[in-house]
Design goal:
alpha/beta
Length: 270
């Protein structure tokens, strides 16, 4: 299959389970994002594994931590025209890759669905909130996202903005939407995301806010809605679709994002 799967990784040892879940003969580009020693050791084991001999695994490295940079570097190192973006903490469901490939159907992008798993009451609330603002929508967010390198000429001449450390896929999606490119969607092409605790998810929201501020300052992101607008969007609208607890949690999540957004200005002044 003429697909290169690009997987950025920094310190996530779950990269091993991710790669072991690949059930097609494809190229795998592990884009090392200022990797930890433990990850480098894990990658060496993967490269020696006979069970993964059906995969053509290669690595590339950037020294400064940047997901956008890792994506760009991985795409540059990829042999094939079709790129499949994947996260190191997720695993492919059976036949996901084949379904994404078949789903292209002459278009430049093919999108599957992230299933946020849960193992507790709180992680279930987080998973439902994540569904609301990510996997319930057809977008060019990753993962899983399969696209042709040809989209570069349609979306401004670059894949991911090199100055964005967070929300790089949001900015990518924005350019795809503005270009009017059709995203073929197959909800049965699934990847599974591990359970998220509120603490970890809210920490991510904070850094998304930092990334949002950077994006606004360089002119690639719109300013976020304030607390009042967020209360209406999340507490009222999200509660109708995902339940009151998920709606209230999403309001807290957005508040954490706004905290990161305004904190970025303070950090910059110091």
């Amino acid at each position: 299959m003429n697909i290169s799967i690009v997987i950025p990784v920094s310190d996530d040892l779950r990269i091993s389970d991710c790669i072991k879940s690949i059930d097609e003969k494809v190229e795998v580009v592990i884009s090392l994002n200022k990797p930890s020693k433990k990850v480098l050791e894990e990658i060496k084991k993967l490269l020696r594994s006979k069970k993964l001999s059906h995969l053509k695994i290669k690595t590339c490295t950037i020294k400064e931590a940047s997901i956008a940079g890792a994506y760009n570097n991985g795409i540059k190192a990829a042999t094939h025209e079709l790129i499949l973006l994947m996260d190191s903490d997720c695993i492919f469901d059976k036949s996901c890759i084949q379904k994404l490939y078949a789903n292209l159907n002459g278009n430049l992008l093919s999108k599957g669905k992230v299933v946020f798993t849960h193992d507790s009451f709180l992680s279930k609330v987080v998973s439902r909130s994540r569904e609301y603002h990510t996997s319930d929508k057809i977008s060019a967010f990753s993962p899983p996202l399969l696209f042709s390198k040809k989209i570069k000429t349609h979306i401004g001449g670059y894949f991911f903005h090199p100055k964005l450390c967070w929300l790089e896929d949001s900015e990518f999606d924005s350019r795809v939407q503005k270009a009017g490119l059709k995203i073929s969607y197959d909800s049965t092409a699934r990847v599974l995301h591990p359970p998220l605790t509120p603490r970890r998810d809210l920490r991510s929201a904070f850094w998304y806010g930092v990334g949002k501020r950077i994006g606004v300052e360089i002119g690639v992101h719109d300013k976020p809605t304030g607390i009042v607008g967020s209360a209406n969007k999340y507490i009222i609208q999200a509660s109708k679709k995902k339940g009151v607890l998920a709606g209230c949690y999403l309001f807290i999540w957005k508040s954490s994002l706004l905290l990161g957004y305004y904190s970025q200005a303070i950090f910059r002044l110091k």
